[in-house]
Specification:
With 99 residues, this protein is mainly β. The protein is built from no helices and nine strands. The mean pLDDT is 93.
Length: 99
């Protein structure tokens, strides 16, 4: 399964929907990723694809300083799952590959 490419993510957070752009690529056999939102660009860490399950962590500073973890299931050009920020409740995440 290939997850490479550009994705638009919508995260339903307690402070409203947040939209992010996710760019995934493979370099020398290793999956790499970058997330962009609100003028901020963040490298993804602990990025892993196991079957159709995609997981990663990232730190953000906008709208709040948070360490996030993501756990998504990829189905073709769509992904769904959740994001977690510390002790806060999980947030629903949906994603769509940009053609």
């Amino acid at each position: 399964m290939s997850v490479e490419g550009l994705w638009t993510l919508v995260i339903a957070t307690p402070i409203g929907k947040q939209v992010a752009e996710l760019e995934l690529s493979t370099k020398e056999g290793t999956l790499h990723g970058v997330a962009r939102s609100g003028g901020e660009e963040t490298a993804l860490t602990d990025l892993a694809l196991d079957g159709n399950r995609l997981t990663w962590a990232q730190s953000i500073t906008k709208p709040l300083r948070l360490n996030l973890t993501f756990d998504l299931t990829v189905d073709g050009d769509e992904m769904t799952g959740k994001s977690k920020a510390g002790r806060l409740p999980s947030s629903k995440v949906t994603g769509r590959r940009v053609p």
